[in-house]
């Protein structure tokens, strides 16, 4: 299913989310996640603030309703919200109806903090929107990237690996290959732009075996322990706000005997050296001039997300120690990205 919120709705400075006719969440914008602590359940859930109004109108195929509510936000204090609830035929699925909820903020104890944090969230999302424009134009032309992708695919193509979680799936280089190999894949990423490109790559039969989720991997509470046979993490932890939480969740949802393959930066990571080596490779192949605009964008964005500059860092050396201390066999470590990164193969102990 394609993204349900328009770009203007997604980047609005007030909560907007979509529900199906039964009241289940389809998509929420960052303002919703920020104000309601990552989930609007407190608003739309069975005992939520707008649930009664939705139930009142459940027999109507189309309706527009309004109501006002007060909510206590743990981070931003008391908030007043004026909801507009619109039920209309779905624009993406024939013969289905969806509910769009617009939450006008009439009062917020710490509006300045909310706006500041939402602005930072938008800036991070827009960074990935820009990266998505050039990601698939440049990376598949780089031999070191193709080699790493192939490592991950091979590691997760073993007998007994049927259901795979792809954390930080991006545009789906690994997801698409695993789906083609017959696996069922759950792909999760924070970037809607990346996931839109992933969806566009999938043939209808492949899409049937894929579950594509936009969200933060630090909370995989929708999955039970030991839900997956394999977990894929390819350069995703380095840009997360809480990479340790995401790794802990990845370990939790992998079954005993399951396979985890991770490529992340080493402590000696040098973004300048990596970009220089990659550019030299493109020039050697005669591709640089053709890809120069895309390459400049990739270079600028990678400098902004340099893992050496992150507050919470988790390098390959740290990951290997954490896995070994948490009932995993680390079966191999191999350098990549001109020695700046490395791939870890690990198996969860029976």
**Structural domain count:** 2
Overall structural class, as computed from helix and strand content, comes to alpha/beta
Which percent range fits the helix content?
25-40%
**CATH class wording of the largest domain:** Alpha Beta
Number of helices: 13
Strand order of the largest sheet: 8-7-6-9-10-12-11
What's the end-to-end separation, in Å? 36 Å
CATH superfamily of the largest domain: Vaccinia Virus protein VP39
Quickly give the CATH architecture of the largest domain.
Answer: 3-Layer(aba) Sandwich
Shape: globular
Rg, please?
A: 22 Å
- What is the typical, i.e. mean, pLDDT? 88
Characterize the main sheet.
Answer: 7 strands, mixed
Spans with pLDDT under 50 lasting ≥5 residues? none
> How much of the sequence is in beta strands?
25-35%
What name is given to the CATH topology of the largest domain? Rossmann fold
Number of E-type strands: 12
């Amino acid at each position: 299913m394609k993204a349900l919120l328009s770009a203007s709705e997604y980047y609005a400075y007030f909560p907007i989310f979509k529900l199906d006719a039964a009241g289940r969440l389809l998509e929420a914008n960052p303002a919703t996640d920020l104000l309601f602590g990552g989930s609007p359940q407190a608003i739309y859930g069975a005992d939520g603030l707008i649930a009664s109004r939705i139930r009142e109108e459940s027999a109507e195929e189309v309706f527009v309703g309004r109501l006002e509510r007060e909510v206590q936000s743990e981070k931003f204090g008391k908030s007043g919200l004026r909801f507009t609830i619109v039920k209309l035929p779905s624009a993406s699925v024939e013969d289905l109806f969806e509910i769009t909820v617009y939450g006008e903020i009439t009062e917020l104890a710490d509006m300045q903090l909310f706006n500041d944090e939402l602005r930072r969230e938008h800036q991070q999302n827009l960074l990935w929107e820009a990266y998505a424009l050039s990601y698939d134009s440049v990376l598949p032309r780089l031999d070191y990237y193709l080699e790493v992708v192939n490592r991950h695919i091979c590691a997760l193509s073993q007998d007994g690996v049927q259901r795979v979680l792809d954390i930080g799936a991006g545009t789906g280089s690994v997801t698409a290959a695993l789906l083609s190999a017959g696996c069922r894949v759950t792909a999760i990423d924070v970037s809607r732009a990346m996931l839109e490109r992933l969806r566009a790559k999938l043939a209808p039969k492949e899409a049937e075996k894929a579950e594509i989720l936009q969200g933060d991997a630090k909370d995989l509470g929708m999955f039970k322990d030991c839900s997956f046979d394999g977990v894929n993490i390819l350069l995703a932890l380095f840009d997360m706000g809480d990479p340790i939480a995401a790794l802990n969740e990845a370990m939790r949802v992998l079954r005993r005997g399951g396979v985890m393959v991770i490529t992340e930066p080493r402590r000696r990571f040098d973004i300048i050296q990596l970009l220089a080596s990659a550019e030299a490779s493109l020039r050697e192949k005669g591709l640089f001039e053709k890809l120069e605009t895309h390459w400049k964008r990739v270079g600028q964005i990678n400098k902004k997300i340099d893992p050496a500059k992150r507050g919470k860092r988790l390098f390959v050396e740290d990951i290997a120690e954490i896995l070994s201390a948490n009932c995993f066999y680390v079966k191999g470590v191999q350098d990549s990205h001109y020695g700046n990164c490395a791939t870890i193969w690990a198996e969860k102990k029976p």
